[in-house]
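Chapter summary example.
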Amino acid sequence: MKSILRDGWSFENSGPVGEQSKEVKGKGGVGESIVKIDAVPKVCGERIYPQDFDLEGQLHARMVWSQNPHAEVLSINTARAEAYPGVVRVLTAEDVPENSYGINYPDQSVFVAVGDKVRSVADRIAMVIAETPQAAKEACALVEVQYKPLPVLSDPREAMKAEAILVHPERGDSNVIDRIQIKRGDIQRGFEEADVVVESFYTTQAQEHAYMQPDAGVGYLDDSGRVTVIVATQTPHDDIRHIARILKLDEKDVHIIVPAVGGAFGGREDMQTHHLLAVAAFVLRKPVKLIFSREETTMFTGHRHPFYMRYKTGATREGLLTAMEVEMVADAGAYISSSIWMLNNATSNAAGPYKIPNAKVNTCAVYTNNVMNMAMRGFGAPQAAFAYEMQMNKLADALGMDPVEFRLKNILEDGDICLTGKPMPQGVGLKQTLTQVALTAGWRQEEDHWAAPRFPQPASPEKKIGLGLACGYKNVGFSFGMDDYSKAVVELNLSESGEMDSAVVSCGASDLGMGAQTALVQIAAEVLNLNANRISVPILDTAQVPYAGSSSASRQTYTSGNAVYGACREALKKWEQVLRDETGETKIVAEYEFHTDVLRPTSYYEPETGECNPHISYGYTSQAVLLEVDLETGATGILKLWTAQDCGKMIDPAMVDGQVAGAVHMGVGFGLMEEFIQQDGIPRTRGFSQYLFPTVLDMPEEMVSINIEVPDPTGPFGAKGVGEMPLLPTAPAIMAAIHGAAGVWIDALPATAERVWACLNGTG
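The structure predicted for these 764 residues follows.
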C-alpha cells in the first residue's frame, strides 16, 4: 500500500530522519549542542505526521461514545446508521475477535457489548466507517443505544467503602485495585522523639496532557497482508502485542509505523486509536483513517491521577527528621491502565529524597466512573513531591529554620538508606543541586547556618513578594523487578580502503519531540569518532528496527543509550578485525542488547514491610521561586525561577535546557491553573477553550537553569535522565513562595486566584 502524499514520501526509501545542521562544531558527539535531527523538516513543514497520510481507497472512521458514565447496555441498533448514504460498515463488539485489552490488565473493551456495561463516558459503543469523514460523523448520531443507568462513583474515597457499587464486579468484591504498605523503624517512637509534628491533608487534580497533535492514524493491510498501523505512540513494539491479542494474530502479522509524534507526556502509552484502526483494517480489508477531534482527545483519553494524601511528619528542634506517616488514595478512573505501576512509583517516592528513620506508608489506587487516568510526566512522583515538599517547608517554618539548612540536614547521599530500606545507588546529586540553586538565588552560607535573601516589596500595598524552595527526585527507567532492556543495531558503511564512511543506527526508541533519536546519534558519534552528520536513523517501523521499550520513565537516554553504546563498541571491534584481515568488506553490522538486570537488579515490595530495591537510577532537582501575590485578587505572577538539575552527563546541553523549560512549564500549570474538571463522571472540560494552561505570559519573567553533572557509573558516559525531574519541585516551590508573600498555605492544587483569595479571606 503506497501513500499518495503530495511530496511522494514513502516508507520504502525513507532514509534518515533528518539532516544535521552544517553549524555542528566538532563531531556533534556527547556534550555538544547540535540541531535535532528532525528539526529542519519540522520547521519547514515537511515532517509527516500520522494524520497527514492519505492512502488509496481509504475510508474514514468516527466513534460512537457512551452517553453515560455508568450503565448497563440493553440494546444497540445500528440499522439507521448503516443505511445512511456513504456509510460502509458500523463495527461493534461482535466484530472484534478478542474484545478485551489493557496495557497492564485487560479490563477494557474495544467496544462495549449488549449485556455488558459502560464504566465511563470514554467507553466506545461502535465505530462508523464511511466514504467521507462527514458521513461517518453524521451517521454516529443515528446509532441507537438503550441504557439502564447505574449509580455513579466519582470520588475514590467513596468508591472504597464496602457498600459502594462495584465498577468491575468481575474483579472481586472491592473497587480497590491495589494496596501497598511500607513499615520502617518504630513510627510511634519516631513521633515521640519529635519536637515538632506537622500534619496536613493534600489534594492534587487531574491534569490534561495537552499534546499538540490530536490522536490520529491510518490502518491498512500491507503488501504482505500484515495489519499495519501508522500512528503516534510511545510504545510501538508493546502495542503490537496488544493488537495481536485483540485480533488473535501472531505478532509477526502486525506492525506499527511511527513517522513522527506531536508530543505525548505519557498520554500515548495507552492505545488511543491504534487498536481501533487495526480492527477496522482487519475487518474491512481496506485502509481506514481515524482522527479524534480536540474535544475527543481532551475528554476521552486519560489524564494525570488525582491524589488525596494525608501526611504527618516529625522533626527534632535541631532539624532532624524522626518520622513520617503517609496515606495516599489515587483515582484510577474506570480502568487500570498503568495505575498499579504509577502507584508503585508514587509510594517509593512518598518520603522524598530524605533520610527517614521511622516511616509508615499506606497507599491505594481505586476504580471510579471517571474517565480513565493514566501515565503522565512524572508518573505519580509530582503528586508525592507536592505533599512531601509542603511538609518540609512547613516543618522548617515551624522550627524557625531556613529551608535550605533544614533540607541539607536530611537529604540522601550515596549509600544512604532510602524509604524502602535499601542504599541509594552511586551518583546522588541532590546536595549539589540544592546548594547551587540556593547560592545562585541569593542565599548566604554563613558559619553555622544558611540565610535567605531579602527582596524589596512592591510599591503597591496590596501586592507582596515571597520566595519559595523545593526539591525532588525521580527514578530513571522501569523498576520493581522489571528487566528494563533495549536493543540497538549499528551498520557501518566502509570505503573501498576500509575507512569508516557513514553509519546507520537502528533502535526503536520513539522520539516524542524530546530529541531521543538525536541523543542516540550523538552517543554513536562519540563512540565511533564519526561526525554526527554521517549517521542516519531509519523511520521507526517495528518490522525494521529492534525493540527499545517505552519512551517513558526518562529512560531512553539511559537504556537505549547504553544499547547504542554497546552496539557501537561491537561494531568497532568488527571494524578493527576487518582492517587487520584486509578482507575488503564495505559493510559491518553489529548489535547489542542492554539489560538493567545485569547492572542493577531491582525488586518488588515485600508484602509486610515494603522493603525492596525499587529503582535502577535517579535524577535530582531543586528549585527556588520568587513571585508576587495580589492580596486583593489572589492572582500570582512568577518573577523569577531558579532550577538546578543533575542529569549525570548532558548528552546535548541545549536539549537538556529544552526539557527543563518544558518541565517547568508543566509544573507551573500543575501548580497554578491546569485542571481537568469532571462532575459525576461527566467531563466539564471539553477542549482547550475550557482548559487553562500556561502561555508565555504566565511563565516566569526570568528563568535561570543550572545543569549539574554527577555521573551515574552505569549510564552511557554517566548519563541518567532529565525529562521529568524538573517538573516535581515547581508546584511546592510556588506554594512556599505564596506562603512567604501572603502567609497562607495552599494545600489543594491548583492554586488559582480564586483559591488563593479564598484562603486569604478564611473561606478556602
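To summarize the output: Residues 1-24 have pLDDT under 50 and may be disordered.
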